[in-house]
Amino acid sequence: MKGRLALLMLGAVALVAAKPPLRFQPDPSSVIAAEIAFARMAREKGQWTAFRATAAEDAVMFVPQKVLAKDWLKKQADPPASVSWSPSIVYVSCDGNLAASTGNWTRPDGSVGYFTTIWRRDKKGRWQWILDHGDTLATARDAPEFLTGKVATCKRGARPEAPPPPPPGGKPGQGKPGDMPPPAPPPADESLIWSADVAADNSRTVTVRMWNGSGYDVIIEDRVKPS
Question: Could you read off the pLDDT of 97-150 as tens digits, one per residue?
């Protein structure tokens, strides 16, 4: 009985180890919900507190030079009142792991501008921002009546082959007879790509492109003048 129980436990461990990576639906509404929660946290708990809580470890921002967000944010005290913002449109990659949102912001003093945020899911499926940037405007951009979301057409290469199973009587470090090969990683998804080009004078261009089935459409192109 004990031997059978041990085998069952080993089998359960093997199944957990072979569990494939989480897959997510390309759902713009989940990004919109993350944006709304982000803005609400900024109002209720503080602007930079919200930025710290939602940033990925490798997130970058511009102040105006490009900085690692975590390092810069930990030195910032929340202002008395937060900037308010709202996305106008959200774009999501085919695999549902990357997104871009853009919209308008307003400062407490009434000045206005725009923002673009790049979002990425973490290992638990939560959205975290990996790039946040924006600029001031003399007049706010026209905001659509309804917030919209768009999903990229899938753009994937061939799935990589899984390594062959170990030979009978496998050697140490090569697995045991009957072991299942590790699951093949999902193919890279390049249906939504972005770049941030920064010049020595701190001018920059943030560009987001989305695959349409035969080529990339430029869906966001923000140009910020030298500071």
Answer: 999 999 999 999 999 999 999 999 999 999 999 999 999 999 999 988 888 999
Report field, pTM of the whole predicted structure over 0.85: no
Query: What is each CA distance from 202 to 16, 22, 28, 76, in whole angstroms?
Result: 48, 38, 32, 21
Radius of gyration of the chain, Cα coordinates, nearest whole angstrom: 23
- The encoded tokens of residue 225 equal 């003048």
Give the end-to-end CA distance of the chain in Å, rounded to a whole number. Answer: 74
Angle of helix 28-45 relative to helix 47-54, nearest 10 degrees, comes to 140
Q: Which amino acid is at 88?
A: S
Burial of 198 per CB tally in 10 Å (0-12, 13-18, 19+): middle
For 125-151, what is the HEC assignment?
CCEEEEEEEEEEECCCCCCCCCCEEEE
